[in-house]
Write a structure and sequence with these properties.
The protein is mainly beta. Helices cover about 5% and strands about 50% of the residues. It has 2 helices and 26 strands. It has helices at about 115-130, 300, and strands at about 25, 30, 40-45, 70-75, 80-90, 90-100, 110-115, 135-140, 145-160, 165-180, 185-200, 215-220, 225-230, 235-240, 245-255, 260-265, 265-270, 275-280, 290, 305-310, 315-320, 325, 335-340, 355-365, 370-380, 380-395. The strands form 7 sheets. Strands 3-26-25-24 form a 4-stranded antiparallel β-sheet, with no helix packed on it. Strands 4-5-6-7 form a 4-stranded antiparallel β-sheet. The longest helix is centred in the N-terminal third of the chain and has 15 residues, at about 115-130. Mean pLDDT is about 85; it is low at about 1-40, about 205-210 and about 345-355.
Length: about 400
């Protein structure tokens, strides 16, 4: 396993502190604020990787390193990694979703989920559509507590266009609602996102197949699902009904250029390079309800940002190579708090001198922080992803 991706956090031995101010109240809603505490001290520990992310498993069934996007909270909001795997035996699918949950003893607890329901779903679906290939990924935790994933399958069709018969590959999407405890799968079809292109993709020479890719999606507590995807040079959005898949509202172009997003109870939050501020847009109106971040210095604000929203308190965390921050009240305040300002820069030594990027981070219910770092290298004519996970554990 390659090391060296923590060099971007040379200034980060974390000491969490928080503010005990009253929560903001907008339209009767409250955002819980962290209690006032003395500055915490953290010990940095490198975490082992779940086996599905180990680069040495590249090409094996269950390897997710080519599509991994980050942590997903488990049912207790502890950091977890989800991976889908399947095999075909006697023309029937045998499939499951494996969950690795980080435990206090410093290891991953592995559990296979939904083996019966997922296998039955694939068998029935294949009988209906006879796909050429399929994927199940982009797992996320909805505000309703359920686990969700994007199911995509590809079929080839001969379509006549201008008197010419062309072989087309059609990409069809569904969202799967996954009941981890009761081994149940519910499909939400998304016919409005179907995408067709000429079937000339060659996996040996083309890095990315033609088609649509969701930048992000989020399931609100009332069941609505917001999808954000790149189109015509910008990020576009659609809200669909969580039962029927029907489009409830087309949000059109949200912002030009590709962005990362955070989601509040009914908001989208993103960083705009146009004015170097974080913007809070209401959903579905897309009204610019608040901006924040003007107190951050130029050496901080211009870096690439990642986001994490606590699903229980709606506290918003921000992270880049300069440290971890909390948006004290992103709904109506400009204030941001640096949680790592008491860092001892001499205490964190780089594991080696590689070049990496922060892929994702996660803050658990105890305020401990987990980082996933990614380094990409071109090897043997293709790109290989190397991952590293770091745990900032509170010192007793």
């Amino acid at each position: 396993m390659k090391k060296g991706m923590v060099c971007i956090f040379l200034a980060c031995i974390l000491a969490l502190s928080a503010c005990g101010e009253d929560a903001s109240d907008r339209e009767g809603r409250e955002i819980a604020m962290p209690a006032e505490t003395n500055a915490e001290h953290y010990e940095m520990k490198e975490m082992p990787l779940p086996e599905a992310l180990e680069t040495g498993r590249k090409g094996e069934v269950g390897y997710i390193g080519d599509s991994f996007r980050g942590f997903v909270g488990d049912l207790q909001n502890q950091p977890a990694v989800y991976a889908f795997s399947f095999m075909v035996e006697d023309e029937e699918y045998l499939a499951d979703i494996t969950r690795w949950t980080w435990k206090e003893n410093g290891g991953w607890q592995e559990k296979a989920l939904c083996q019966n329901s997922l296998s039955e779903f694939l068998d029935e679906k294949y009988e209906q559509v006879k796909w050429k290939r399929f994927t199940l990924d982009q797992f996320c935790r909805g505000d309703d507590g359920s686990l969700y994933g994007i199911f995509t399958y590809y079929i080839k069709e001969n379509i006549e266009s201008d008197g010419v018969l062309k072989e087309m590959e059609t990409q069809v999407f569904s969202v799967l609602q996954i009941d981890e405890e009761n081994d149940q799968i519910f499909e939400i079809s998304l016919p409005d996102f179907t995408y067709s292109a000429e079937a000339d993709y060659n996996p040996l020479f083309d890095d990315v197949p033609p088609g649509r890719d969701f930048t992000a999606y989020h399931v609100f507590e009332d069941g609505r699902i917001l999808f954000i995807y790149t189109e015509d040079g910008g990020e576009c959005g659609k809200i669909v009904d969580g039962e029927t898949g029907e489009i409830l509202k087309d949000l059109g172009n949200i912002i030009n250029g590709r962005r990362r997003f955070a989601f509040g109870e009914s908001e989208i939050i993103y960083f705009s390079k146009d004015d170097s501020l974080f913007h809070v847009l209401s959903v579905p109106e897309l009204q610019d309800d608040n901006t924040f971040g003007s107190q951050l210095g130029e050496d901080v604000i211009g870096k690439d940002w990642r986001f994490y929203t606590n699903p229980d308190t709606w506290e918003l965390f921000l992270c880049n190579e300069t440290g971890v921050y909390s948006a004290v009240s992103y709904l109506d305040s400009d204030e941001t708090e640096c949680l790592t300002e008491n860092t001892d820069p001499q205490a964190l030594e780089p594991l080696s001198g590689g070049n990496g990027e922060l892929l994702d981070f996660f803050v658990d219910s105890e305020g401990e922080i987990y980082l996933c770092l990614l380094e990409r290298e071109n090897e043997f004519g293709g790109e290989t992803n190397y991952y590293q996970m770091i745990h900032y554990e509170k010192e007793e």
